[in-house]
Write a structure and sequence with these properties.
Helices cover 37% and strands 24% of the residues. By secondary structure, the chain is α+β, with helices and mostly antiparallel strands. A five-stranded mixed β-sheet has the order 1-2-3-6-7, with helices on one face. Strands 4-5 form a two-stranded antiparallel ribbon. β6 and β7 form a beta hairpin. The protein is elongated. It starts with a helix and ends in a 6-residue tail after the last strand.
Length: 230
C-alpha cells in the first residue's frame, strides 16, 4: 500500500510539475505575444509621426490670392464659375458733337476711340466689382453668368454748367427677366425694379491726343424708367 501510495504521489507530483511547466510556458508565450504587439504598435506610431512631420514640411502649398480671383466666384454661385462680362459699342464714329450743344463746344462724345475705351473700362469695372464695390454690377453679373452689354446712343449730356460731359446708354443681353437692378425709395418702403424697368447709362468725358480719343468715366448707374411706380 505504501509503495502504491508513493507511486501515486510521485505521479501526481510529475503531473503537477508538467502542468506548472505548461502554465509557465503559456505565460511566457503570452508575454512574448503581448510584447510583440506592443513593439508593433510603437513602431507604427513612430512611422506615422515621422510621415506626418515629413508631409507637413514638404507638401504644404502656400496660399495665394489675387484681386482677380477674389471676385471670381460665385460668392453666390459656384467657385470658379465666374465668366468675364464682355461688351461692345455701337453708334460711335458718326460725327463730332461740335456745334450741336448749347455752347458749341467740341465734346467728341461720338468718337470711335471713346466707344472702345468705355467698353474696356466697363468690363474692368465688372471684373473688379464686389459686395463692397459697385454692388449693382456685382449682383447683376453674378446672377447672370453669361451677361453681355452694349454701349450705345452716345450724346452730349446737355448740362449747362459742364459743356464737356457726355452720356451713353448701356443695354444688357443674356439676363434673367427678374434681375433686380436697384431699389426705388429707402428703408422698408424701398421697392425693387428690374433691368427691364431701368435705364442704365454711363457719363464720361473724352480727351484727345493726336488722332486718338480716350473716355474717362464719371459714373455708371441706373434709374427706374418713369411710369413704373407712383
Amino acid at each position: 500500500m505504501d509503495g502504491k501510495l508513493a507511486g501515486l504521489l510521485m505521479e501526481n507530483d510529475t503531473e503537477n510539475n508538467n502542468i506548472g511547466t505548461e502554465k509557465i510556458n503559456n505565460n511566457v508565450n503570452k508575454n512574448k505575444k503581448n510584447m510583440g504587439c506592443l513593439w508593433t504598435f510603437i513602431i507604427l506610431v513612430l512611422i506615422g509621426s515621422i510621415a506626418a512631420l515629413l508631409d507637413d514640411g514638404t507638401t504644404s502649398t502656400p496660399q495665394t490670392t489675387s484681386d482677380n480671383t477674389s471676385y471670381t466666384s460665385e460668392n453666390y454661385q459656384t467657385e470658379g464659375a465666374y465668366r468675364p462680362v464682355t461688351g461692345k459699342y455701337s453708334g460711335f464714329g458718326g460725327m463730332n458733337v461740335a456745334f450741336s450743344n448749347w455752347g458749341g463746344q467740341s465734346a467728341n462724345c461720338l468718337e470711335n476711340g471713346a466707344g472702345k475705351s468705355l467698353v474696356s473700362q466697363i468690363e474692368v469695372m465688372f471684373q473688379e466689382s464686389s459686395p463692397q464695390k459697385n454692388q449693382v454690377l456685382y449682383s447683376i453679373s453674378n446672377y447672370n453668368p453669361t451677361l453681355k452689354f452694349e454701349v450705345n446712343n452716345p450724346r452730349w449730356a446737355e448740362v449747362a454748367e459742364d459743356f464737356d460731359r457726355c452720356i451713353a446708354d448701356i443695354t444688357f443681353k443674356n439676363y434673367k427677366p427678374d434681375t433686380i437692378a436697384g431699389y426705388k425709395g429707402y428703408g422698408d418702403s424701398a421697392t425693387p425694379y428690374t433691368i427691364d424697368e431701368a435705364q442704365f447709362g454711363v457719363t464720361y468725358y473724352v480727351s484727345k491726343r493726336g488722332d486718338k480719343y480716350k473716355a474717362s468715366i464719371r459714373a455708371v448707374g441706373c434709374d427706374p424708367i418713369e411710369g413704373y411706380y407712383n
